[in-house]
Amino acid sequence: MKAAVLKGPCLLELEDLPDPLTPKGGALLEILACAVCGTDVKMRGQGHRDLAYPRVLGHEMVGRIVEMDADSILAEGDNVQLWPGIACGKCRPCQRRADNRCRRIKIMGFNCDGGFAELLALPKESISCGVNLLPGNVDPALAALAEPLACCINGQEQARVCQGDRVLILGGGPIGALHALLAELHGAEKIIVAERLPSRIRLLEKHTRAVVVDPSEEPGKTALAAEMGREGVDVILTATPEVRVDGDLLRLLTPGGRVCIFSGPAPGNYQEMIDQRSIHYHELAITGAYGSSSRHNRSAVELLTSGMIKADWLITRRTNLAGIEEAFSHSSQRTGMKSVVCKN
Ligand SMILES: [Zn+2]
Ligand SMILES: [Zn+2]
């Protein structure tokens, strides 16, 4: 099979690899769509805590089952969305429905091979919880957005986004956009997205209910301050690595406010000293989110396939596997939103 293999920093090569065998108790999948994530771009350029080389990247995957070696309601020919985690199912977090915190977790596209390939071997552990059946008429590229949406569901669960909240999203790329759509679904009273790139601002204004402001210069700064009002916001979600969660940021929260550190903080942004009194007196909460559980993926698939979340506009580039460089550069140039590598 053809696969895009990352051999080291900035060394992504299209290669012929032996076809994987169907694992015992698992399944063999033909990949129909795999979306490029900001983390893929980061891993390609500089590696990642959970990445081991050489690696087939790609964790936002939709495939078709070509061979099945398990008793399952799923059958050959079914289209499925994949939760990229492979969890043990036995440890305490797994037992408590938080399999993304599994002590022995492996993640496809990080520490085992992922979806920028023609085929994928799906282990036994994935069959029971990590595979979500798709209706036959669903666009695989759209369904591939279920994984990043699932991560946003996790983030908003951590930050307890609910009806009537005022939500500030820092960063208006694909993740900021999904957060905006989801906050709207959760009944947020006001959604403000801070984003600098004009092309992304236009897309967000067209397709979401969010007020979008450019915080980098006047008059965006004033507009942001006006939108925040004197009371501040209930929730802040970071959707770019360039955010310092410091005293200045916490002052934007209303008492009882929550901030979710969603994007992995850039070097230099993760060792802030925070005045604990502000947390105490204003009953603030700082939380984090990393990835998503299988449960979040199921919810995300439902939201996308039912049309409760309309996200097709986020796909601004489609390529095939041979065009993976183009898919990565579209993502890293950040003029559009999401690129998806699709089967020919
Ligand atoms: Zn991702
Ligand atoms: Zn576990």
Q: What amount of the residues lies in strands?
A: 25-35%
Q: Which parts are unreliable, with pLDDT below 50 for 5 consecutive residues or more? A: none
Order of helices and strands: EEEHEEEEHEEHEHHEHEHEHEHEHEHEHE
Tell me the span between the first and last alpha carbons. Answer: 14 Å
CATH class of the largest domain: Alpha Beta
Looking at the structure, the CATH topology of the largest domain is Quinone Oxidoreductase, Chain A, domain 1
Structural class: alpha/beta
Number of helices: 12
How many distinct domains? 2
Mind summarizing the main beta sheet? 7 strands, mixed
What integer value in Å does the Rg equal?
A: 20 Å
Bound molecules: zinc ion
CATH homologous superfamily grouping of the largest domain: Medium-chain alcohol dehydrogenases, catalytic domain
User: What is the helical fraction, as a range of percent?
Assistant: 25-40%
CATH architecture descriptor name of the largest domain: Alpha-Beta Complex
- Net shape: globular
What is the averaged pLDDT score? 94
Tally of DSSP β-strands: 18
Features:
2 domains, 344 residues, Quinone Oxidoreductase, Chain A, domain 1, Rossmann fold
Task: Compile the SSE list and pairings.
Blueprint: E1 2-6, E2 12-16, E3 27-35, H1 38-46, E4 55-56, E5 60-68, E6 79-82, E7 85-86, H2 92-95, E8 106-107, E9 119-122, H3 124-129, E10 131-133, H4 140-143, H5 146-158, E11 166-170, H6 174-185, E12 190-194, H7 198-207, E13 211-213, H8 220-228, E14 233-238, H9 247-250, E15 253-261, H10 276-282, E16 285-288, H11 294-305, E17 315-319, H12 324-333, E18 338-342
Parallel strand pairs: 11-12, 11-14, 12-13, 14-15, 15-16, 17-18
Antiparallel strand pairs: 1-2, 1-4, 3-5, 3-9, 3-18, 5-6, 6-10, 7-8
Helix pairs in contact: 5-6, 5-11
The chain binds zinc ion (2 copies).
